[in-house]
Amino acid sequence: MACSSAGIKPHGYKCMSDLLLSVEALAATYNHAIRALSGVSLTVRRGEIVALLGANGAGKSTVLKAVSNLLYAQRGQITEGQIHFDGGAVTTISSADLVRRGLVPVLEGRHCFHSLTVEENLIVGAIGRDARRSEIASDLDRIYALFPGLKQRRKSLSGFTSGGEQQMTAIGRALMSRPRLLVLDEPSMGLAPLVVESIFRTLKQLNVSEGLSILVAEQNSTVALRFADRATVLENGRTVLGGSALELRQRADIKALYLGSPSESAARVSSSSNRAVA
Ligand SMILES: Nc1ncnc2c1ncn2[C@@H]1O[C@H](COP(=O)(O)OP(=O)(O)OP(=O)(O)O)[C@@H](O)[C@H]1O
Ligand SMILES: [Mg+2]
């Protein structure tokens, strides 16, 4: 959306130049008891791929759910901090409206409707934006061009397709919503390296050719840092490190840092030079 001359949009929208998503000092709990996040900050600028890295339980999925305003569905609460997407406060916008505005999540577990065909799953992604038939047909062609394997499987029930095909279907369905920011939770999970490579290449292609912005949570830092522009590392619900993917790739301690035990990681973080947090 273009900014008005005064830089202020109606309904409290504020022009935020190239900043598409900002998460500031976010804290969150589950069941008003379990503290999952206690200080997460990150940004995604238009046209960027940002990787969210961290070990099991670091809080990656919680951040992505919060960003998509889906935390409440798992009895989660944001207790502190702010999230803005395209200048609007995410907590005031329903998850369905966020999708319509271009923030489209593909959450953990490559959720497909197993009793629908691959093509029906893809079409579900277009329904939310009230797409016309002709638009749906051309968007399907586009998805099949990006993921040729899905075209061959388009009449198959998703429940009978491979893990890689299900992940591509879930991403394809999100793309059918015409996102501006794709929010992906561990697209590599449980998939063979070649499939992971192919999925990330396709995402990078979309990023380069169409300027699609992507926030991707990954435990696979090797692949994520190869394709991302910047990365933010979480540990125990906090942002502990951030910077360009190139810089982070060159740091020998990153893998040990975020894959190590909490105590080892904490020691490394405090002894490592403090970097600007993204
Ligand atoms: N639905 C839930 N109810 C209660 N606690 C939860 C729930 N989901 C996550 N948690 C807790 O919140 C913390 C952060 O979990 P989260 O799933 O966000 O981490 P993660 O970085 O995505 O981990 P993983 O790599 O295993 O997916 C963990 O301590 C986890 O046990
Ligand atoms: Mg997770």
In the CATH scheme, the class of the largest domain would be Alpha Beta
Strand order of the largest sheet: 6-7-8-3-9-10
Q: At the fourth CATH level, what is the homologous superfamily of the largest domain?
A: P-loop containing nucleotide triphosphate hydrolases
End-to-end CA span: 24 Å
Ligands:
adenosine-5'-triphosphate, magnesium ion
Element order, helices and strands?
A: EEEHEEHEHHHHEHEHEEHHH
Radius of gyration: 19 Å
Q: How many structurally independent domains?
A: 2
**Largest sheet, if any?**
6 strands, mixed
Strand content: 15-25%
User: What is the oligomeric state here?
Assistant: single chain
How many beta-strand segments? 10
CATH architecture of the largest domain: 3-Layer(aba) Sandwich
CATH topology of the largest domain: Rossmann fold
What is the approximate shape? globular
Give the SSE layout.
Elements: E1 19-30, E2 34-45, E3 49-53, H1 60-67, E4 76-85, E5 88-89, H2 95-101, E6 103-106, H3 118-127, H4 133-146, H5 148-152, H6 163-176, E7 181-185, H7 193-210, E8 213-218, H8 221-227, E9 230-235, E10 238-244, H9 245-249, H10 254-259, H11 262-271
Describe the protein in words:
- The protein is of the alpha/beta class and 278 residues long.
- The protein has 2 domains: 185 residues, Rossmann fold; 69 residues, no CATH class.
- The protein has 11 helices and 10 strands.
- A 6-stranded mixed beta sheet has the order 6-7-8-3-9-10, with helices on both faces. A 4-stranded antiparallel beta sheet has the order 2-1-4-5, covered by helices on one side.
- Helix 3 runs parallel beside helix 6.
- It is globular and about 45 Å long.
- The two termini are 24 Å apart.
- 42% of the residues are buried.
- The N terminus and C terminus are likely disordered.
- The site of magnesium ion (MG) has 5 residues, from helix 1.
